[in-house]
Amino acid sequence: MEFIKQFFFSFICTIGFAIFFSIPKNSILKSGITGAIGWVIYIQITNIFSSTILGIFCGALTVGILGEMLARNSKKPATVFIIPGIVPLVPGSGMYYTMLAITEKRFNDAANIGTETIFIAVAIAMGIIISSSLSKSIKRVKNKS
Amino acid sequence: MVDNLENEKKETKELLSLAILAGSIMLKNGAETYRVEDTVNRICKSRKKTKYVESFVTPTGIFVSLEYGNEIMTYVQRIKTIKIDLNKIDMINNFSRKFAESDLSIEEGINELKKIDKITGYENTIKILWGSLAAGFFSLLFGANLWDFMASFMVTIFVLIFTTKLCKFNITFFISNFCGAAIASALSILLVKIGLGENVDKIIIGAIMPLVPGVAITNAIRDTMSGDFISGLSRGMEAIVIALSIAFGVGLVLKIYFKGVI
Question: Quick check: B86 and A23 CB within 8 A?
């Protein structure tokens, strides 16, 4: 039950942001599913290994791979699916808490939350970069043969 | 003979301005810098007369140099506003492929680009409604209850209407984010006082979600990792300043609240 609930919440969340970013109409559902699958994988991995960073990385990697596959399928740039897809994972609240801690002179908290925020951003970026370079090398191999 | 050369030179100039137009529309709507560089290069190389093209794109400007005959032309375009509009990125991407493969004349190309630039996409009300719905579900993801969801949804509608109104007056992003965050936290406190919603912090986190620069910080790291250090730095700076403005807005209201004024 918890599983379905999380899937549904993140699905609506991704679709909402996709429309907020004015996505092409025929890609709304696809981007929503991408984001929801990424979020569910993040939750599962975080529960199993109790590591947020690993969970975020696996979620972002899933979003990246799904995005590249959908992009090839529907002949659109992969960004169209990846940007809304990573929105639930993205450390927006972390950025805000870091800056709030700095304005309130709680520098220890700022360092703690800030490092985690940056690591989460690095994990997402790594997931996306790995998937996009994988898709590029697959394209190159296919073109050669 | 001389006339012919003059014509070709003029054509190359127009090709360069077309490429810059396409690149600037893409960059204004939040495309990655490497994609803009690819597009500009692809358009410039699509006509055989150009020998050499090099473009350098940062989130704040495009620089393109193009060698034709024994002359070098350079074009600099400054970009100011950056928002995210995935539809336009997709359309320009398709256009550049079509332009490179077909014999579309440059004038027609420029007309088509201007048409793409004018497309408005979804209505503002639809965007605001879905953005607020997303914000409400964000609070649910963070563990809020149903009342918090309602509160966060309503607060975000107000915040988004306010920030889109401010955008029309060309107010700098720092001020509009600051005001948006301040309004978000003030309204959240008000709603909790009335009795709609229980957890102020979760409502506030949901409501400022459309403003926080999560995507910007991720893109910054991504640019830096792929070797575009200047783009990475400038996007990272943008993210930090936006986060700072939101923290100022929320912090100010919370401070007044805890002093017991409201």
Answer: yes
Contact of A9 with chain B, judged by CB distance below 8 Å, is answered with yes
CB atoms within 10 A of CB B229: 11
Closest listed residue to residue B49, CA positions, set B21, B71, B76, B64: B71
Q: Which residue of B has its CA nearest to A14?
A: B134
Are B189 and B258 in contact by the 8 Å Cβ rule? The answer is no
How many contacts does A have with B, using Cβ atoms within 8 A?
150
Q: Coil, strand or helix: which one is B262?
A: coil
Angle between helices B106-118 and B86-101 (to 10 degrees): 170
Q: Which residue of B has its CA nearest to A75?
A: B94
- Interface with chain A: mutation pick from B84, B86, B209, highest number of A CBs within 10 Å: B86
Contact between B221 and A121 using a beta-carbon 8 Å cutoff: yes
Handedness of CA B26, B28, B29, B30 (dihedral sign): positive
CA angle B112, B115, B118 (to 5 degrees): 155
Domain B2-118 has CATH 3.30.1300: yes
**Residue B262 — very low, low, confident or very high, per pLDDT cuts 50/70/90?**
low
Q: How far apart are CA A80 and CA B193, in angstroms?
A: 40
CA of A44 vs chain B CAs: smallest distance (Å)? 14
* Token pair recorded at residue A74: 């529907």
Nearest to A30 by CA among A47, A41, A52, A15: A15
**CA-wise closest residue to B6 among B99, B76, B52, B68:** B68
pLDDT tens column, A35-76:
999 999 999 999 999 889 999 999 999 999 999 999 988 888
Hey, are the CB atoms on A17 and B134 less than 8 Å from each other?
Answer: yes
Q: Which residue has the higher pLDDT, B2 or A141?
A: A141
Per-residue pLDDT at A64: 93
- Tens digits of residue pLDDT in B17-64: 889 999 999 998 888 888 899 899 888 888 777 778 899 999 889 999
Beta-carbon contacts of B29 under 8 Å, excluding residues fewer than 6 positions away, are: B83, B84, B85, B86, B88, B89
Q: Would the ipTM clear 0.90, i.e. be above it?
A: no
Residue B75's SS3 state is: strand
Measured between CA atoms, the residue of chain A closest to residue B217 is A121
Residue B85 identity (one-letter amino acid): D
